[in-house]
Design a protein that fits this description.
Elements (H helix, E strand, L loop, with lengths): L10 H16 L2 H17 L3 H14 L3 H15 L5 H17 L3 H14 L5 H58 L3 H39 L8 H39 L9 H6 L11 H13 L5 H21 L1
Length: about 325
């Protein structure tokens, strides 16, 4: 789209519009925004009605680009609040009305309608005619938008109830898995870790089925009421975010189960040794093989044994034996020096 250059414009206006045309072609938004300020100033201060009217018409074309729509709307509202020139008022009312009607929303209609009502009583017949025509059309659009808003509110309420039901089920299932898993002792965690993996897969599968049902519910709403297109995103995001949060929680629970299983293998290894036998930290570390984390470090093994001693699951002598061995290994490099 290109703004027509009028022959009666002076060089300053002509250059400004040409620069706007170039910037629009390259979609240089900030450049156009800056040049709009120059156009606004010319409209407000120029003494020639013809020039001012032609620039108002140019603004209507520029406003077709979304980044400039609100800025131009706000300028025209401000202009009409104090404008005295009959010709400028007539075309400013016309341009503002067309813009509001092209991209109608209830907030914008409510904001601008009182202005058009005011100009329905203007002393100029042309201004009155323009304002009355726009007011009539906006009144109709407003009623339509109010009805649409009522429909959208009803559909959102329906969708919210559907998602709340699904979320209640999601939370209940997540809570059951978490409580069941966190009550397990080390041996039980070891014996049920495979079942836990199955439960997690099943948990995710049920969630995926639930999400597909939610989407089908939304598709039905949109098919019956196309105005609902896009209005459901916030509610759908609420479901997706909560689903992701609960699935992450279950993965953390699974991680705890894996850790408990490894600890049980350490317990088994220690209990298989007599108090006179020397335990090997390397053998203990082998019990922790598998999983994303991999084999535990020496310090992690010792921290685990300290925990098991505190819980009175293993005797302290094995822990002390391991610590003495670790101290000895740390001293050897110093002795060699």
């Amino acid at each position: 789209m290109k703004i027509k250059i009028e022959r009666f414009w002076n060089d300053n206006i002509r250059n400004t519009i040409e620069e706007i045309n170039d910037s629009l072609k390259r979609m240089e938004i900030n450049s156009v925004l800056n040049k709009l300020e120059d156009i606004f100033k010319i409209i407000e201060t120029n003494q020639d009605s013809k020039t001012r009217v032609s620039l108002c018409i140019a603004l209507e074309k520029i406003a077709q680009f979304d980044p400039f729509f609100n800025k131009i709307i706000n300028f025209l509202i401000k202009l009409l609040e104090k404008e005295q020139d009959v010709h400028v008022k007539e075309f400013a009312v016309y341009v503002l009305g067309n813009l509001v009607l092209e991209k109608p929303n209830l907030t914008l209609i409510t904001q601008t309608l009182p202005l058009f009502v005011k100009f329905c009583k203007d002393s100029s017949e042309h201004v009155r005619a323009s304002a009355e025509d726009i007011k009539k059309r906006l009144d109709h659009v407003k009623q339509t938008k109010i009805k649409e808003k009522e429909i959208i509110t009803y559909l959102l309420t329906e969708l919210k109830e559907e998602i709340d039901t699904r979320l209640d089920n999601l939370n209940k299932r997540a809570s059951e898995i978490s409580k069941k898993a966190l009550l397990l002792d080390y041996e039980a965690a070891f014996n049920t870790q495979d079942k836990m993996v199955e439960d997690i897969h099943k948990f995710s599968e049920i969630n995926e089925i639930a999400e597909e049902k939610i989407k089908a519910f939304i598709r039905k709403q949109v098919n019956e009421n196309p105005i609902f297109e896009g209005e459901f995103q916030e509610e759908l995001s609420r479901w997706k975010n909560m689903r992701a949060e609960k699935e992450d929680l279950i993965r953390q629970v699974h991680c705890i189960i894996r850790i408990q299983s490894k600890i049980f293998k350490i317990i088994q290894y220690i209990k298989s040794r007599s108090s006179k036998e020397q335990i090997s930290i390397d053998e203990l570390k082998k019990q922790t093989e598998g999983g994303l984390k991999g084999i535990w470090s020496d310090d992690e093994i010792i921290e685990t044994l300290e925990q098991l001693v505190q819980e009175e699951i293993i005797p302290n002598l094995f822990l002390q034996q391991l610590k003495d061995l670790k101290d000895l290994m740390e001293l050897k490099p110093n002795e060699e020096k």
